[in-house]
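Quick one: structure tokens for this chain, please?
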Amino acid sequence: MELKLEGISFNRRGKTVLEGINATLTDSGLTCLMGINGTGKTTLLRILSGELKASSGRYFVKGKDAVALSRKEISRYFSVIPQNAPVPPYITVGEMVGLGRFRPRSALWWQLTTADRVVVNECLARCLMTSFKDRRMDELSGGEQRRAWLAFGLAPDKNFLILDETLDGLDLPAKRAFFQMLKGIASKNRGILMASHDLDMVAEFADRVIILSEGRVIFEGAPDPNLSRFISAPDGGYPIDMSCI
């Protein structure tokens, strides 16, 4: 299944944030979205997830014009893990990942089925969190929390997973382990789109890279060992903080 963007633009208070974004993603592989501060990465992710409506342009999911769909309808295709997702107190890792199987239609009497529990355990295993199943979320390290959130995002078993992720505070081995995990998950018929600013990890692990500059796509394709030539601060240097807008 393809996710196809055609001329996506977005204006905020008279300012152009995104202009004419064209791109195609499949529901298998790790795509990294890059660009310096203010280039529109988070805005684009929010449009794809249905949180924002594009000012113009269209994008298609499974052949359907997603711009015409409600946020609820769009959510059938996307799992979203926001940047700096809050840590829920008192809830265990297993309980939180189980909430990823929640079905609104049966809200009053919903509970995990046997099939749901199988999926939850598979997601915990894929994210190396099985041994943390009964630990509280607020007892975990930063890297462990990210893996728990990833398992939560996988639990609904949707076509695409969107991560507005910085991995700030993680050391190099932890970052590498996280990217390796995403690469493995994306290789099994799961499309992952992640906003990232880690050039080395992206060049090593991404299947596809999209780079934005001033709200436009300036690079789309397989990882390039010289990606840094597309990303530079106004003074010519590489910014220390590359977090999304």
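The beta strands are 2-12, 15-26, 29-34, 56-61, 64-65, 78-81, 160-164, 191-195, 208-213, 216-221.
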